[in-house]
Amino acid sequence: MSYSYRAMAAATVLSLAALAPTQQASAADMAAMPMKAKPIVDLPFFLVNDNRVTYSYIFDGTDPGAFTVRPDGSINGKTAKSVYSFTHFDVWAYGTNFFTISMFKSDHNDPASPCTAPGVTITGGAADCAGATEIYGLIRSTFGLNEIFSTKAFTYGYLRNVSLEIGADANSENTFLAPAKRDVVAGLQFAFDLPYKGFLNVAPLYYKEINHNAFIQCGLFGPGTAGVTCSSDGNTEYKGTWAVEVNYYMDLGFLPANMQYFSLSGRAGWYGKKGNQNGSLGALAGGTETAVELNSEPIRLTMDVSKAIWGDKYSHNVDVWVAYRYWQNKFGLDHNAAPGVCTLAGRSTNTCTEESLYSGITVKF
Q1: Residue 73 Rama label (left phi>0; alpha psi -120 to 50; beta)
Q2: pLDDT tens, 116-157?
Q3: The domain containing residue 155 runs over which residues?
Q4: Mean pLDDT, the chain, whole residue set
Q5: The domain spanning residue 111 has which CATH number?
Q6: 6 vs 50: CA distance, rounded Å
């Protein structure tokens, strides 16, 4: 996740907070102290409280099933997206909280409702629909076992801590499909130290998702049988499955001092098969089996512009970055199957795998 570099600052604050009450005064200090001791100042509830806004651009994004067939018969499944994001990260005595909410605005190759494809409505009529808008939110919270049990038993070698992790995702998009994803995750997070004030987090999790799919709504293509061939409300409930989420951050501390404005970070999430793409409906509803999903940004290069211009005091107030984004089997849809969405007449629509340059600017406030 993009908050990786902040967690290292959080760990530093935690260690300083733990050391401060136990430091011993020297004899000279004791002699200079008044007889009446000063009251100890309480630590703030949030040891780190970090808020940022980001504008970014995905050059070659995709949305499953959103594609155009060119006059020569080739398929264009790419859609550029502007992304507007707010992120919050905090550290308190027992763990961390991360929250982000983003708005993705697509170009016309990923149309909003009532179009079901670029230039085409559900009735087959022609229409120049606007690009789709998606709102996506994510929250992850950790509770450190070292902090909960007041121990160092969960620190060994490069392992810094083991935490309980819980979280949830939610989205809504104004396409005809009208997805409304809701999922929860729960499990453990293992935090490891990396060189140059870096770290690596690995979280094995349980994953459970409920979504919405307008194309399986009863009444759209005839009455159907609710729960067998169609869904009474269009909702799809998937089987619980496994997930592994990984993120890392590291300053490029090996660079010369006058160039130490750069850092590397990245993330990856694997999500197991969750059953038929039409959820809990029977075989008569059609659909194909889902596949293991990989949603990743394996590398992001960030330049701390504010530090380069104004010095250490303003470090990471303004960052510019460029990243590589790779997302296979988007939303669990098998990029080699899912006829009409991921494939068309045996050919790939190039919409269920996303491979793109991704760049943006982030400002702290």
Answers
A1: left
A2: 999 999 889 999 999 999 999 999 999 999 999 999 999 999
A3: 4-364
A4: 89
A5: 2.40.230.20
A6: 8
CB atoms within 10 A of CB 66: 27
Tens digit of each residue's pLDDT (9 = 90 or more) over 277-332: 999 898 788 889 999 999 999 999 999 999 999 999 999 999 999 999 999 999 99
Joined together, the tokens standing for residue 183 give 């999922």
Q: Give the number of domains in the chain.
A: 1
Q: In the block, which residue shows the tokens 């211009």?
A: 309
Burial class (CB in 10 A: 0-12, 13-18, 19+), 189: buried
The two structure tokens encoding residue 123: 């009735």
